[in-house]
Recover the amino acids of this structure.
């Protein structure tokens, strides 16, 4: 049931889809992440804990993890949905992963579900914490880095696709003529934040590479 999308169910006798399991999995996921960050990051105040949880419990991260484990290959989709790339759609992947978590909870209990969540989310939580006090507002640090480095503000280009009830936003952020990051989300803000996060990482890597080259030059 966890891998059965409603489009497949409609074509196969209206059997039950994964939507109810998705509802359960969403709650289990939120609890597992909340407990992890509460225990492992005692120095963070409530506001930062909330930002941290929101930063890793969202459709963007869910879809990213679903792609990492190739969940799309296992999903049962209707012919039309599969033909239009449903196995890689953010909303379908995110919902499917939540349904998997819900199924694991029902089958093995909270310990099994938490173990699954922690295994899949550990690296994502650690990476999110490394962003520091700014939490998950990637746009502000990108603005600061871009102005300090290039004396120009970043520019966001966002396009929306899909029907009104399942709108998907694709964003790319540029500094000058260079595209530094892209991102996808169910809202314009979510897509821009994802793109900004990628751009911040790109600028930091470029700064580190530049510093390393300067050190080599000085040594010579």
């Amino acid at each position: 049931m966890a891998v059965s999308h409603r489009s497949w169910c409609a074509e196969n006798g209206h059997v039950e889809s994964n939507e109810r399991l998705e509802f359960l999995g969403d709650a289990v996921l939120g609890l597992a992440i909340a407990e992890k960050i509460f225990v492992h990051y005692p120095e963070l105040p409530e506001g930062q804990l909330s930002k941290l949880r929101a930063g890793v419990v969202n459709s963007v991260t869910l879809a990213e993890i679903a792609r990492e484990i190739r969940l799309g290959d296992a999903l049962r989709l209707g012919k039309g949905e599969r033909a239009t790339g449903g196995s890689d759609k953010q909303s379908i992947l995110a919902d499917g992963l939540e349904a998997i978590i819900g199924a694991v909870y029902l089958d093995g209990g909270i310990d099994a579900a938490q173990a699954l969540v922690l295994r899949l989310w550990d690296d994502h939580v650690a990476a999110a914490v490394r962003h520091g006090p700014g939490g998950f507002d990637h746009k502000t640090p990108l603005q600061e880095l871009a102005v300090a480095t290039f004396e120009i503000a970043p520019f966001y280009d966002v396009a929306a696709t899909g029907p009104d009830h399942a709108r998907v936003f694709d964003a790319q952020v540029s500094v000058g003529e260079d595209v530094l990051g892209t991102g996808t989300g169910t809202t314009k803000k979510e897509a821009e934040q994802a793109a900004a996060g990628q751009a911040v990482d790109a600028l930091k890597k470029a700064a580190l590479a530049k510093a390393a080259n300067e050190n080599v030059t000085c040594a010579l």
